[in-house]
Amino acid sequence: CEGIKFADQNVVFDSGSQKYTFNDEILKAYCPNQNCDSESQKLSSSFIALLNNFKSIDKEKLENDKLAQYAILWFSSKIKENTKAGHGINDIYNTIIKNNIWFSEHSESIDDKKDMMNFNFMHLKNLYELLKGICDTINKCSDSSNTKECIKSAKKCGELYRRCLTSFPWEEGHCNPYCSVLSNLKKDYDKFRENNSDKNLPELKPPEGRENCENYCKSLTRILNAEGSAIEGTKQVTTPGIGLLGQLRILTSINNGNKLLYIAIPFILIPIILGISYKYLTPLWRKMMKRKTMKKIINSSDQEKAQNGFTNAFIEKNQSE
């Protein structure tokens, strides 16, 4: 907790200039020639300084994995402060950390935690806030005269823990790494709670109706596996020359109730279409036929008049002769 607190207070991000500043020169120790020319070098140097601090505390490497997880949580929180950091933590890690010559001695412990770096920033933030909440509880409960603040801080840890469980990563492959970090945080809190049993600190419990982290991961894995099997079962490959067969396979995947619906629809629609046609097209057809008949009558009448006129003229001519 002291290492996290020191790094948090001495690596400060200015939202105006979008730059990081060090409040302690010791954080420059892992910059090239102890001079950080870029924001990435500042983050890289401070991250390695934090890892070295953890290493000095855990000389027997009993908690190496857990402390590496906590360092990554701090690192992700600092990256998130910079709105211009458009890439994920994994991309930033590969770019700025592996280029630091001091990183090689930590690469093994950190590379084992690479799955963490694929978490959504929201999940990393929730975990980091729980880490800070536990550290805050430890600090406040260390003062025997501050019982009220101690209990208040511990209750907040319970809220943060439940938030971490309700906002769980559903992406495949993220559940177990996420659960590993959350379980380590809970174990640290439980250990402190047991050592301070006289303070009656509240237990970290999952939300009502929600399983603990490990069981929830198992349930989620079963769901994802079942969905994967269902998707594989419905996949059909349609190749040139068997397009009709492919369509038939798709149709067979439709349940019987839907089959009846698809068959019935044409028989329902055909009478409706014919009825509409009879209602609207028949009067139109009759009107067109009536017009044709009238036109024929008019034409024949004109022809008759012309013929009568010609006949009359011929008779008159003969009479005059």
Task: Outline the secondary-structure elements.
Elements lengths: L1 H9 E4 L4 E4 L16 H19 L6 H18 L7 H9 L9 H5 L9 H21 L5 H20 L8 H21 L17 H22 L8 H10 L3 H65 L1
Antiparallel strand pairs: 1-2
Please describe the structure with a list of short key phrases separated by commas or semicolons:
mainly alpha; two-stranded antiparallel sheet; disordered C terminus; 2 domains; 2 strands; 321 residues
| Low-pLDDT ranges | 236-264, 293-321
Global outline: globular
SS-based structural class? mainly alpha
Gyration radius (Cα, Å) is 41 Å
Determine the N-to-C terminus distance.
141 Å
Strand content bin: under 5%
N to C succession of SSEs: HEEHHHHHHHHHH
Number of DSSP helical runs? 11
The main β sheet shows up as: 2 strands, antiparallel
Helix content: 55-70%
Average pLDDT level: 72
Total individual domains: 2
Transmembrane segments: 260-281
Keywords: Membrane, Transmembrane, Transmembrane helix
Pfam families: Cir_Bir_Yir
Protein name: CIR protein
Describe this structure in words.
This is CIR protein. It comes from Plasmodium chabaudi chabaudi. Pfam families: Cir_Bir_Yir. The chain crosses the membrane at residues 260-281. InterPro entries: Yir_bir_cir (IPR006477). The chain is mainly α and 321 residues long. It has 2 domains: 2-224, no CATH class; 254-321. 68% of the residues lie in helices and 2% in strands. It contains 11 helices and 2 strands, in the order H-E-E-H-H-H-H-H-H-H-H-H-H. The protein has helices spanning 2-10, 39-57, 64-81, 89-97, 107-111, 121-141, 147-166, 175-195, 213-234, 243-252, 256-320, and strands spanning 11-14, 19-22. Strands 1-2 form a two-stranded antiparallel sheet. A hairpin with a 4-residue loop joins strand 1 (11-14) and strand 2 (19-22). Helix 2 (39-57) packs antiparallel against helix 3 (64-81), helix 6 (121-141) runs parallel beside helix 8 (175-195) and helix 8 (175-195) packs antiparallel against helix 9 (213-234).
